[in-house]
Amino acid sequence: MQSLNVQNLGKTNLRRVTAYIDHDLYGELEKLAEADSRSVSQMIAVLVKKAIAEAKVEGKI
């Protein structure tokens, strides 16, 4: 039987980012995430990936 390592429960290798946004914008973000069956955090990650890919194509980064 495999043992469970409880020290790593809930831990992730992902970086945490804190952002402050307008309440109305957050409401729209929640709607967008729900429409895409994602959490707000997952939706932000998708949007950031898209923005970075676009910036690379445009030669900004």
TrEMBL record:
A matching Pfam family: RHH_5
InterPro entries in the cross-refs: RHH_5, Ribbon_hlx_hlx
Residue ranges annotated for the CopG-like ribbon-helix-helix domain, each copy included: 16-56
Lineage top rank: taxon: Bacteria
SUPFAM superfamilies from the UniProt entry: Ribbon-helix-helix
Name this protein carries in UniProt: Ribbon-helix-helix protein, CopG family
Taxonomic classification: Bacteria, Bacillati, Cyanobacteriota, Cyanophyceae, Oscillatoriophycideae
